[in-house]
């Protein structure tokens, strides 16, 4: 659906995007993550045509594109229903049911209220409804859950997940747990450069340092003291009175020597197993 070639955007001497080669498959939900100032919003702006690239090119295999900015604004005198219906008419004049979308995004009860009194969370929901009403092939979402409470985030994430296969979604977020939950592909931006792009499972398997959860009989102190002095062990963290998390510098070292070190420490091991990395763990490793 999307390919970019050497895409760059500069503001004076600052490179907001630096030769980004992006590949977004049709029907995928692509998570765009990175620290503040990494270039996520700039990249979405260039993809949507709202900003002009300094260099490089963009190929998008559709002209049915909808964009949700991180802080959507609407004419305050319009009602929620009027906002979404206006977006429908001005966009593709689709036959999508406006009231159904208001229901899906959780603002049906406020359909006839003027949006000038809406909270930021309600505006975010309204923006999502206005974004989807035209049945776009490509949906660009900039921090769609940033202003929502936990229940609102849950509802919006479920709605985004249902778009898989029906539309292509590029989903920018700093809430890494949300990206891990709904995205199948991830791109990591750092200082304007795309430093990783691939399937989420490839990132989780290939990038994070290995962690092991070890459940022990007391006392733990002799075991912690022994493991803390091992060169290939980066950290030993007490999770609860009978559980420690061991962070190794390499998977090979942990697999070949962790059991031996526990035995040498006289540990009474109840259970031992690897801890699946989260996107947050991997993200911190990649951008460090």
Give a brief description.
This protein is of the alpha/beta class and 288 residues long.
Report on the architecture of this protein.
This protein is an alpha/beta fold and 288 residues long. Helix content is 34%, strand content 29%. The chain is built from 10 helices and 14 strands. The chain has helices at residues 40-48, 80-90, 98-104, 120-132, 150-162, 176-182, 200-206, 221-228, 251-264, 279-287; strands spanning 2-11, 14-20, 23-24, 29-33, 55-60, 65-68, 138-142, 168-172, 185-190, 193-199, 211-216, 233-240, 243-248, 269-275. Strands 6-7-8-4-9-10 form a 6-stranded mixed sheet, sandwiched between helices. Strands 1, 2, 3 and 5 form a 4-stranded antiparallel sheet that branches. Strands 12-13-11-14 form a 4-stranded antiparallel sheet. α2 packs parallel to α4 (120-132) and α3 (98-104) crosses α4. 37% of the residues are buried. The mean pLDDT is 89.
- Distance from N terminus to C terminus (CA atoms, Å) equals 31 Å
- Please give the order of strands in the largest beta sheet: 6-7-8-4-9-10
Query: Major beta sheet, specifics?
Result: 6 strands, mixed
Counting DSSP E segments of at least 2 residues, the number of strands comes to 14
Q: Helical content, roughly?
A: 25-40%
Compressed to H and E, one letter per element, the order equals EEEEHEEHHHEHEHEEHEHEEHEH
- Please give the count of helices: 10
Task: List segments where confidence is low: pLDDT < 50 over at least 5 consecutive residues.
Answer: none
